[in-house]
## 1
Amino acid sequence: MSAGSPHGANVTKEPSPRLWPGDIYDALKRADVKQVAYVPDAGHKELILQCQADRDMTAVSLTTEQEGVAMLAGAWLGGDRGALLMQSSGVGNCINMLSVPVHCRMPLLMVVTMRGEWGEFNPWQLPMGQNTERVLHDIGVYVQRATAPDEVGQVVYAAAQLAFSSNCQVAVLLSQRLLGFKDWSK
Amino acid sequence: MTGESSGTMDRRAVMRTIVAHRGDALIVTGLGSTTYDAGTVDHPNTFCLWGGMGAAAMVGLGLAIAQPDRRVLVMTGDGEMLMGLGAFATIGAQRPPNLAVAVIDNEHYSETGMQATHTRRGADLAAMAKACGFAASETVRTEDELAAAAPKLFSQDGPFFVAIKVNTQRYPMSIRVRDGAYLKDRFRENLLGAERAFF
C-alpha cells in the first residue's frame, strides 16, 4: 500500500480491530464538527485518517496541543464547531491557553487518549497521566470518561452536546484500557 | 539594550494606517499593547485577546478556515508571537490564502518592564514565517514601506506575514470592554447574525 495520505502523513490505512475510532468520527459528524485539530497519537490514528479524508472537515496538524485550543476559539468566532484530539501528556501543554475558552465561554470539545494508567510501561508518562483529570477540573473543564469500547461514541456525542449547547469546555478521556497493552516488541 | 528599539514608527499611527484599509476584514489582536492600540479604533469585526499569550495567530487560523470568503488579519506583538512560534509552522503547512499576520514589533516586552525580546537580539520573525511556508513575508521600517504594505495585508495571497518595526513609546492602557464573553458574542452576532450566533 502506498504511504501517501493527506498532509503527507506517512501512515497507511490498515484494517483495525477497533470500532470505537469510527464511532468517534460518527459522533463528530452528528455534532456538525468542521475543524479537527490534532497532535497525533496511536489511539487516534484511524480517526485522524477519517477526518483527513472528509471533504467537509478541515484536519489541522499542530506543533503543540495549546495551538489547537486557540485555533478552535477562532473557529467558534467564525461559526465553526471543532474538536481537539490529543494524548493525556498534551493536556498539560494546554492549561493556560484554556483560560481563553473558559473566560470567553466558548465551547471546546477535547478527546484525550490516556497514557500513564492501564498497563503503562513508560514511567515518564505517569506524572501527567495520573493528574490529567485533576488539572482539567482545576482550570474549569468538565471531564467525562469512556472505558468500554461500546460506550465511546455515545460519550463523545454527549460531550459535544454539552459543550456546544452550554458554551462550556468538555474533555472526554479515553481510558488506556481501550487501547490495551502496547506491544513494544513491534 | 533596554528601552531602545531599531524601529522609529509610532505604534498607534501604525494601527490607524492599517485599519484605514480594513474594509469588511475580520481582525484578531494579541494581548498587551496591540490590544490596547486596537481599543482606540474599536470595531465589531475585531476580537481582542486579553489573555492566552501565544494564541493570536492560531485564533486567526481557525477563523480563516471558518470564514474562507473573508479576509482575516492577526495583529499582535513580538513577545506574543514569540510565545507561539509553532503557529508559523502550522499556518505554513495549512496555507490559508485569506490570512495575514502583522507583528507590531517594538523589540520589547513593554507591559512588564520593557525587557528586550529576542527580536531585539536578532531573531527575524519575517524570515521565520517565510521559512515555515508563508506565501510571502516582509519587514517594514518606514512610513513609505508601511503605506505600501498596509493594503497588501488585506489583499495579498496568504498566508502573508509582515513585521512592522515601531519605537518603544508607551501609551496609557485603553481600558474599554475587556469581558471576553461579551467580546465573543459581539463578534459572532455581527458576523453570523443573532439567530446563528446564539442558537
Note: The interface with chain B takes residues 7, 34-35, 58, 60-64, 66-80, 82, 96-97, 99-100, 103-106 of chain A (CB under 8 Å).
## 2
Amino acid sequence: MERLLAVRCPGLLEEDEAGDVLRVFAGVVAAVEASCPWVTVVRTGICTLPVRGPARYFGGEHAVVGVVTAAASAAAGGTVQVGVAEGTFAAVVAARTGTIVGPGGTPAFLAPLPLAVVGDRDLADVLARLGITTLGAFAALPERHVLGRFGAAGVARHAVATGRSGDLPGLADPGARRRLHALRHPAPPPDRQPGFWGGASEADARAALAIGRVQGLLGPDGVVTARLQGGRSPADRARDVPWGGRRSAGRPGGAGARPPWPGAIPPPAPLLVHRDRPAAELVDPGGAEVAVSGRGLLSGEPARLSVAGGPWDRIDAWAGPWPAEERWWTRGHRRAARLQVVTGGTARLLVVERGTWQVEATYG
Amino acid sequence: MFDSVAPDRVPGRPAAPAPTGPATRRDPGALAVLGDLAGRIRPTAASASRLLPVHPALAPLLPEPGLRRGSTTTVAAAPGLEGALSVAMALVAAASTGGSWCAVVGVADLGAVAVDGIGVDLERLAIVPRPGPHWAEVTAELIDGVDAVVIRPPFAPRPAAARRLVARARERQSALVVILGRAGWPEPPDVRLTVASSRWEGTDRGAGHVRRRRLLVTGSGRRAAGRTRRCELWLPGESGEVGTAGSGTAGAPGPA
C-alpha cells in the first residue's frame, strides 16, 4: 500500500456555518501543496499526500514531515499533527500521535489499537464479548468468519485492521471535497445593471457612446470588460464579458471571494494569458525532453526552451512544478503540471499535459 | 504629487472647443451632429483637469506630475526585453481608479488578474482585444469618448494615419499611449518611455517562484520632456502592484 503522509488539523475538524474553517483549511492545503504535489483532501481538517516523491526531493520522510508541519501550522494558525504510514487510515492514526511508521510496519503499528478506532460500535461490542478488543486480534480472525458475522462492512474494517486497506468506511468525506471545490468555483453572483447607465455622468455617457460605436464596427463582442473570479489557473481567474451587456459583479462576494485558491501559482499574475497556447519544447542539458512524473517531479533540469518551433533560448531560472488542479481533487489519471521558466527578460508559465508542453501565459 | 493633481470632474471648468478637423471629412452631416453632441457633453469630465493622475512610482518619468490629456506617449522595450505593456497599463491605472474611462486596443490575451494587480480599475477599462484591420478607426472612436487610450498597433501605421490619431487625441483631450512592439510609430511622441533593463527575481532551480521584476525605465521627449529621466520600478511587485525600486540592487532579495 502507498506510503502516505497525513496532516490532521485538530482545530479544523468541525466546519462552521460561516465557512471560516473550510477557508482556513483550504489555506492549509494550499500551503502544503506549495511544497508537495498530489495532496488529497480526506475530510475537512485532514489531508494526505504520497510521501515517496517528496522524500526523495527533500531527503527523507523526516524532512518532508518538517516541511509540511511548518507550512501547515503557519496556514492553520494552530497546531497540526503530521504522521506517515501505509494507507489513509493508518496515516491519519499516525498523525494523531505524530508517528512516522517505518516501511512495512503498519500492521504492527495498528495491532495494539483499540477496536473502537474503526468506528463501528456494534462490531466492537460483539467482538469485545469474545475477548477481541484490539485491531491486531480482529485482524487475526479469518476473513470468512468476519464476512459471515458482519457482512461486507465488517470485511472492509477487517481489511483496514490487517493493514491491507487504508479506506476505512466513513473516514473520507467526499462532501468536504465538494465544498472546497465550491469554494474555488463559487456560483456566479446575481447580475446587476451596469453602473454607468444609472446615475451616469456625462463622461460616462460619452464613453458609452464611443464604445457603442466601436461595437458597431466590430460587433457586440468586439469590446469586452474583464471580470475577476475565483480559480487556480490564470485562465480560470478572469473572464471577459461583452461590454454593456448584463454585467455581473466584479469579484464574487461572500464566501470564497478571496484567495488562497489551493494550488494556485503564487502572485504576481501573468499579464498575458494565451487563449491559443503556443506549443513549447523543453529539454534538459543533455537535450532530452523534460517530463513531469506522476509524483510531480521533473525528469531533468530544464535547460533550453523553444516556443512554437522557434529558436532555443537558454533557461536562466525556473520554478515549480505545480500540479494542475484536476489532480488535486481526484486521484484520477490526469497528469498536468505548471512550470515557471525565465529566459532572458521573459518569464513564462508553461503547462504540461500528456507529455506536451504549452505556453499558458507570459508575464509580459 | 499624487494629491496635487486635481481630481476629475471638477464642475464649472470651461468647455473644450467643439471638435472640427479630420473626422468631418468623412461624412459631414452625421459627424456634424455627433460633433455637436460631443461638444455639448464634453465639458464635465474631459477638460476638468489638464492632467490625469499617475501612480507616484511612474511620475518621475514624466515631464509633469501626471499624464497630460491630449498628449501622446510611446512605450517601448529594448530589444529582447518585455515590459512595455506593463508600463503602459501602469501609466493609466491611477486615472482609472480616479474615475476616468480607459481603453486598451489590440492586446489579445490580456490577463485581467495582472491588470487588476497593477492597479487598473477593471470596471473603467474597455478592452478591444482584436480590432483587426479596424484598429486605427477603433482608436479614433475611443479617443472621442475615453480619457486614456492604450493601443498596440499590429504594424507601423503610415505617417498620415498616426498624425491623424495624435491630432485627434490632442483635440479631444484624450491621453494616447502607444505600445511599440515590432511596429514603430512614425510621429514623434510628447513622451517616450523605454524599458532599458529588466530582471525577474524569485526563481532558482525549481525553488521559489516568479516573485517580482525590476525594470529600469527611461523617459524622454519633446520640449520640457527633452531631458532623459530614469526610474527603477518593481513591475510587477510581489503582489502584482507597481512600486519604486531602490537604486542599485541593495535591499533586493536574491533568488530564493
Note: Chain A has three domains: 3-161, 193-241, 272-362.
